[in-house]
Amino acid sequence: MAADRRDPYSAFNFIVEFDGIAVAAFSEVSGLSFEIEPIEYREGSDVLPTVRKLPGLLKYANVTFKRGITGDRAFWEWIIQAMNGAVQRRTGSIVILNESREPVVRYLIREAWPCRYEGPELNAGSNEVAIETIEVCHEGLELVD
Known about the structure:
The structure is a single chain. 7% of the residues lie in helices and 47% in strands.
């Protein structure tokens, strides 16, 4: 009897959704991480000079999206709202797809809003795609089914 083989999923096969709607194709997503800062302390009665560690604040890294510039202005409008002081928080998903383009892994980011934008580097002597970078901060990262 053959064993059930579980190959890892490809890093290039993914989609990005905000509020349940797939947005323009992104070439790269990074920053799906968090950190729990340790609180170090030592009790005065400890015999050994050892630092004890307690869990501290939970911090989520900003998620960075990169894409080629297109005529799609939906993300730009969201950025403009934030620049004008009217931050609109959204729920976003980064969905990893299998070879059949079916969703298999979904990372959910909650209360997300754009906090940084970087336009493309333009060079008349180059034939590369003009890439823009959008950084989003958020208040929660989940792995959901």
